[in-house]
Amino acid sequence: VTETLVATDAIMPGAFLAPAAARTGARMGWSADHAVTELYSLHYRALVRLATLLVRDVSTAEEVVQDAFVAMHGGWQRLRDGESALPYLRQAVVNRSRSVLRHRAVVNKNLQKALPDMPSAEYGALVLLERSAVVAALRRLPERQREAIALRYYADLSEAEIAATMRISRGAVKSHTARGMAALRAALERE
Amino acid sequence: MITRSGCGCDGAQSQEFAEFVRRELHAAADQVQPSADGLERIRAKIGSSASP
Fold first, then answer.
1. ipTM value of the model?
2. Backbone angles phi, psi at B27, to 5 degrees
């Protein structure tokens, strides 16, 4: 999976807020190593939490985010400015999370033949998260709806930022978000 | 469950539900504490990817 190096003029809100120095890192001449260190301190935790909502376990989420940082390091010279770094990381995290889920679906399909309904130990952290009925319901949504809702309501991104992250139109973001919220509401009302 | 029944077409109700979802996702995700050696692991991966 590759991530296009997309620059946006987005402001980083909420958990992803970054100081001006970080947003202009490349312009200020940060090396790739320094960029990794700075962006790690600013965004690693929030990106792992976002990835955990998508892939459902912390260990895999950390792998996904670490690999996104490695990819950013490799492409640092191609990033047009430091403001592109966080959108790039988000996009890489979403893409890699998607790949993990697709791979896991294939593996689980085979495992279920041998071990029906048996929970995996690697989902220990998931049990904790899914004490939240909202997280449990989020997990059951289609992939794009889950991503749109996590990016909107956890990462607090705008429609334009979500569109850039998911590489879809703003209209599609609206549609996925609205359908996902309706499905979440219906699922929670049934409980 | 905290949700209210209805068509979901009411703006205030939708806003209320959106805020509920936001609070729940933050409360759940904020329990996640990444391991302390994340940066070291990234640097090790960068090192190994740079090796021939």
1. 0.80
2. -60, -40
